[in-house]
Design brief:
five-stranded mixed beta sheet, 6 helices, 27% strand, disordered N terminus, binds the ligand Nc1nc2c(c(=O)[nH]1)N[C@H]1C(S)=C(S)[C@@H](COP(=O)(O)O)O[C@H]1N2, binds molybdenum atom
Length: 442
């Protein structure tokens, strides 16, 4: 198979889309632009109340974009459509999604327990029978696929008979950290107002997508594969965008993508994609399609709303048609502390946190306990690891009572360091700036 360059290939794919020469399963670019304009970008600047929120087309829920504590009832125990229990000390409900409170990761190990792993659902978790589950592979990029005949179906036993691989990888939403565009930079962005807990790291086990593709037979001119979920179609502002699906270049599909049936040594649970989900290491969470039911393999570039008008960067700093589709995640750091945590003065404390990057491992973390005036290295407990995070800690003995901002700043093996500010984009993806974590001494 000839390896193709993702960048040059995507340029071609994007030109076709912008020229209106392509449709994504009945959704045209024009429909999407109308939709984006209709939904608008809501102006939830600090202090704005929840009623300012409207449903943005890239996210299903009318969630407030601020972290305002008044906007949410205190005792929400369930999010619509999520099956597992959502204890309020572990999760913050955001529409159809549940964010992991970073403080709830304190004391957990490297791998995020399934009960604490964030959930991001466009609609609702479907509860599927593993016995009835089938994966259908079809499309013009398959050998032997002619006139809609020649699709191949696999069941879970077929998948389990293939060599199993185990891979530790983070799944992180591209919008993780989005609320800080507003609260730190005063910028209005649309979408779920995550703080930093739209990430988890798990040990995934399953079959290699490349083994499945080689077995069913891929043509030499295949360029894209598009996994699609079995959850309900996603309807936004009255437009039916179809089932959640996003194309992957064949080069990534053949590299390290897994069809996972286990998470942390147990069969997948419904909320995380049971019986089988796609895991695309290092890439934005949307690539890791849950409840996968079919995979189109195509000799033509494929489109879906999730690689055209969503999950690209739009805004003054980006080309008119948006950036290339988002792939690798950015660099972030988080303290395992609630916002507003209280510390006794003149006593020694140990602060803990985690840092991660889609570009490679994290090799250095610095912490500031004086609002950014001075920095010192944190003790990093884990080796830099691609697709994962590192845990770190630092001693702190606060002296004067009052409000303080704690800052953590990571540097990855690719040489990136978290900046002070992230260049804005309309949908609030890829916040990578240093987050100012407020605490109180006293
Ligand atoms: N079928 C399907 N797959 C999906 C989604 C979805 O709503 N439906 N959400 C995506 C998004 S945006 C993210 S960030 C991850 C979240 O995975 P998790 O819920 O297991 O944490 O799943 C992705 N896969
Ligand atoms: Mo996401």
């Amino acid at each position: 198979m000839t390896p193709i360059s993702e960048t040059s290939y995507d340029l071609r794919r994007r030109r076709q889309w912008l020229a209106g020469a392509a449709r994504a399963d009945g959704v045209s670019r024009r429909d999407l632009l109308t939709l984006l304009a209709a939904a608008g970008v809501f102006t939830a600047l600090p202090g704005a109340r929840a009623h300012a929120a409207t449903t943005a087309p890239n996210e299903p829920a009318a969630a407030p974009t601020t972290t305002s504590t008044t906007a949410r009832p205190a005792k929400v125990l369930a999010a619509p459509g999520i099956v597992k229990p959502l204890p309020p000390d572990v999760f913050t409900i955001r529409g159809t999604n549940a964010e992991t409170n970073f403080a709830a990761l304190r004391g957990t190990g490297y791998h995020t327990p399934v009960e604490r792993f964030f959930v991001r659902n466009h609609t609702a978790t479907p509860v599927l029978s593993a016995r009835d589950w089938r994966l259908r592979l079809w499309g013009s990029g398959l050998r032997g696929f002619v006139d809609h005949a020649g699709a191949v179906e696999l069941d879970l036993d077929d998948l389990r008979r293939l060599p199993a691989v185990t891979h530790t990888a983070a799944i992180e939403c591209a919008g993780n950290g989005r609320s800080f565009f507003t609260s730190q930079q005063g910028e209005a962005v649309s979408g779920t107002a995550w703080t930093l807990g739209a990430i988890g790291v798990a040990r995934w086990r399953g079959a290699r997508l490349s083994d499945v593709l080689r077995r069913v037979g891929v043509r030499r001119d295949a360029v894209d594969v598009m996994p699609r979920g079995l959850d309900d179609a996603y309807v936004s502002a009255g437009v039916d965008l179809g089932r959640v699906r996003r194309p992957l270049p064949l080069s990534k599909a053949l590299d390290d993508v897994i069809l996972a049936y286990e998470m942390n040594g147990e069969p997948l649970t419904p909320d995380h994609g049971a019986p089988v989900r796609v895991v695309v290491p290092s890439w934005v969470g949307i690539a890791s399609i849950k409840w996968v039911g079919d995979i189109e393999v195509s000799a033509q570039p494929l489109y879906s709303p999730w690689n055209t008008d969503f999950y690209r960067l739009f805004g003054p700093a980006y080309p008119a048609g948006g950036s290339a589709p988002l792939t690798r995640q950015t660099l972030k750091s988080a303290f395992e502390l609630p916002a507003g945590a209280r510390f006794a003065p003149r006593v020694g404390h140990r602060l803990h946190g985690r840092s991660w990057s889609g570009a490679g491992g994290v090799r250095r973390v610095e912490v500031s306990t004086d609002g950014g005036a001075s920095w010192r290295p944190a003790d990093v407990r884990d080796e830099p690891r691609r697709d994962g995070w590192v845990r770190w800690s630092v001693d702190w003995r606060p002296t004067r009572p009052g409000s303080v901002e704690l800052l953590a700043r990571a540097t990855d093996t690719a040489g990136n360091t978290q900046p002070e500010r992230t260049t804005a984009n309309a949908q609030g993806y890829f916040f990578d700036a240093v987050v100012r974590h407020p605490v109180t001494v006293g």
